[in-house]
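Protein chain data
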Amino acid sequence: MIDDRPGVALVLAVIVLMALGTTGLGLLYVSTQEVLIARAGEESARARWEAESAVRATLANWSTRRVLSLDPGDEMDIDAGKGGVRVTIVRLGGSLYLITATTRGVARGSAAALVRTVRPEALWPSFAAALSTRGAPEVDPGAVVTAAEAGHAPWPWPPELCPGEVLRSIAEGLKGMEPASIVVPGDSPADAPPEWRPVLPPESPGRDESSVFRIGPFAIHELAALADHVVSGDVQPAPHIVPSGCDTTVATNWGSPFDPGGPCGNYFPIIYAPGGVHMTGGVGQGILVVEGDLVFSGDARFYGPILVTGALVIRDRAMVLGAITHVGSASARLAGEARVDYRACSLWRAFSGAPALDQAFAPAGRAWVPTW
């Protein structure tokens, strides 16, 4: 009998203890691996979250002005406020940019997003002349419409505010076409000055009129949504300065073109007038969108591009230093000593300085893209 053999029980006990020990070690190994896997998953998720947070922080602090100098294929490293994350902006081409973020720690996480920007050259074609109109405008003998000094800085702006990239933007945006004084649709009339030439397409049956109610990629209702100020009736804009700086909450604060170095000198708002507007005097700068009639009178002066859908009247000594695109079928008239002076610098500063256009926009497709 086994029970009669000496030492057998001890051997059996040792075998059982070894089996239990092996089982315990196996369970400990499995549990340790599960803890390590869970920890690795947590660190990977944290790294991914940090990368996505860095991309979102870059989007929240986006400034198109910072990336205007990038050519297609160029990249820029930026500080997104995350010391352990490397953030890069790459210009893909046109107005598309790719933001990538990669963590620098042991656990690697990455995220990437596509954004669409509004570069100044995308807006140039909407303002190919000092005055673009659907019909021949009425210009009194004392009024002036000119593009003779299109590349010069308007008074009182110093030349350094109008760098050489302005001319390059014009060449790219207008495809080499020199800016004209006046453009009208269809064939130029026989008695028209030589600088008149067609830009807007002629009338045609079934033509969508809203197609010309836009600036670059933005339809007029999108510009209304982006507007910094909504105005109507009689206005006399002037800069509004408080101890803390330029007060941009005042609807009649349209920047300070007469004081380009002042607190409001770099403020170029988008101003939307849904029912028309009459600028009785004062001075302003920015992008003016008028869905209705526009009247400039007195000593009113505006620096920048103007889109107007209704009647256009500029009279007395009023002046526009930029460009006007007059769409629709209403009349356009310049009376008295009115002046419309095509100035590329005013357009460029308005396009590149408008706060509403300095943000990143979602692309047509997916914004977040896979990374590997």
In short: The chain has two domains: 1-117, 120-357. Helices lie at 8-60, 64-67, 165-173, 220-226, 344-353. The two ends are 69 Å apart (CA to CA).
